[in-house]
């Protein structure tokens, strides 16, 4: 999962991103990740990993990860190439979801690009840039499809109708995300890669004193929540400054710090959880004496597809999956005992993975 952090200047993006990189995972364990200064890799919190490490006396523990991309420099006019805008927009295109940081703290010493915090206006500025970029893209696509229509292509005529309705929706300054299309039009989305269609999470970045703010008692948070609702998205209340403080603490002190603040978990953990939910993701586990590891897959994923996350050979040569539920395995005390009790199932190609499955794949090479 790759999440792009966007927002106007001076809203707290770098503060949050620095907290992310400081809390970050050891990049060397994830060779498939892009290692660049604007990318931070974070472990997905998973309380099932440690008990499994103990059970197997495993040498290594590798949590699932989320990549965060710092997409600084998205300002009004970006879609017109201002402030290197187009480069930033193409970075967003590579992300699975967008996290928009919205300034909800007042501080006279920190200039706000447009005067004072105004979450609804700030969200609109960013959304408009994404929408403008999509309009440009759609207009080009329409010109191409129109040519096919002139040749009498009926399928193209249907697509053109879809594209024109979508364009008119965007022209009214609505995001593609909020466009209601017919099920029969689902395929048309595949080729569009629209920025304003990306799932979005809003982070209301509040001051340290407001970490318990809600839409009921804080007008800035209320404004973010309302916009989030309109986009069928979630709004999380976070203080980037506090996140930076948490990230700088040794692990053993983090829990106490959170408790002192009256928080159950860090903002970062909440962002990751919300990202999983937003994108319909879950984790399954592999476990053995060498390594205990969590893997991210979409909910509803079949066993061969899940195996393909480990290696494409595993998917191609998939024979079956030996599956045991995490809680069953732990209660049994070992895989052998779980097998004796008949708790380890042999599942075939059609098997739909469940959250907390501990799996061993059998495959042909
Ligand atoms: P960016 O331009 O969006 O990357 O913003 P920065 O992360 O550089 O933050 C701009 C300024 O706002 C910095 O001086 C931060 O210390 C301050 N800031 C960021 N987050 C918070 C916050 O949660 N509370 C307060 N009071 N200040 C913050």
TrEMBL record:
The keyword Magnesium applies. Residues 280-363 form the TGS domain. Keywords: ATP-binding, Magnesium, Metal-binding, Nucleotide-binding. Residues 1-258 form the OBG-type G domain. Its cofactor is Mg(2+). Gene3D superfamilies: 3.10.20.30, P-loop containing nucleotide triphosphate hydrolases, TGS-like domain. The keyword Methyltransferase does not apply. It comes from the Bacteria. Coiled coil: none annotated. PROSITE patterns: G_OBG, TGS. It holds the Pfam family YchF-GTPase_C. ATP binds at residues 10-15. PANTHER family: OBG GTPASE FAMILY, OBG-TYPE G DOMAIN-CONTAINING PROTEIN. Belongs to the TRAFAC class OBG-HflX-like GTPase superfamily. OBG GTPase family. YchF/OLA1 subfamily. ATPase that binds to both the 70S ribosome and the 50S ribosomal subunit in a nucleotide-independent manner. HAMAP family: YchF_OLA1_ATPase (MF_00944). This is Ribosome-binding ATPase YchF. It comes from Amygdalobacter indicium.
